[in-house]
Amino acid sequence: MSGVDVTAVAKSYGATKVLTDITQSFESSSFTSLLGPSGSGKTTLLRIIAGFVAPDEGAVRIAGADVTGVPVHARNIGMVFQSYALFPHMSVAANVGFGLGRRGIRGKVAKAQVDEALEMVRLPGFGGRYPRQLSGGQQQRVALARAIVIRPDVLLLDEPLSALDRRLRQEMQVELLRIQRESGLTTIFVTHDQEEALTLSDKVAILDRGRIVQMGRPAEVYERPRTKFAAEFLGDANFLTGKIRGNTVEIAGATIATQDALPADGTSVTVAVRPEKIAIRPADSAGNDALENRLPATVSSVIYTGTALTYMLRTGDLHLKVFAQNSDGSPLAAGSAVVLSWAARHSVMVEG
User: Which of 37, 135, 289, 331 is the most buried (most CB within 10 A)?
Assistant: First the structure.
């Protein structure tokens, strides 16, 4: 199978820089999500890899070959769009086999490959139907079958699940991951959905203003964000700003321990702590002495969502958030004095 290499790619539209010096490799047979807000450049990067957009600078290599100046139809890619882009006047089989026909593959060979692709997306026997006779999820599967039937070097997915309702979206996430694992295709997936990126990906690349600010395994990027942007875009985070005092960070009159390497004494730093990493207990109850960090706070409000609780808290000028399981059905009341505690390894120093 084949990987993708992007080297020093830049793209501007007039005075607006969309991508700046993007250099990144996408490993063979891996599933990588490009995650970022609207305008971050993720779709432009995908379209440059596909060949729909030409970069102003830089190069794209697919399967080791430089395809920077190669038109879309001459690149061996499979593409799935947000809108599915199926031909309404053509049967499912004709839609799936469209790319094969353009490659000169017809007859029994084409039929066998179409049947195989429909089997892979779990739509055997649907070849004679038309897109209008299918549900949204089924249309998405047909679009996937059309993309993989040509046996591409890379599969490119541009927010393909965003038009589906939540239940179908979750079902298609499972199916998409299964198909990628079975086919072994190098897959690059554009999404703005954090949960989707964490669920599907071998690697997640977070884009901000035309740059990849962090790329790594989902757990790595989530647990050890490098920047404030990465921490708050992928998940949720509390940010505590203070100064280095010895081997701790002095914040809001408390000393916060971290396992990160510390800069010089007196340096201002920002520490990110995920809301689910923080334990909360009434101030007059016994705590967990194994947790290195403790911070007194007051509950401002409680958001009840059934299985979980979100506590909004304050301590001095700081406003914090804590996620907790609704284990006993008796949430702490607003105005309660509490103690927050967490392990030093969950205090992550971030830039920005």
Answer: 331
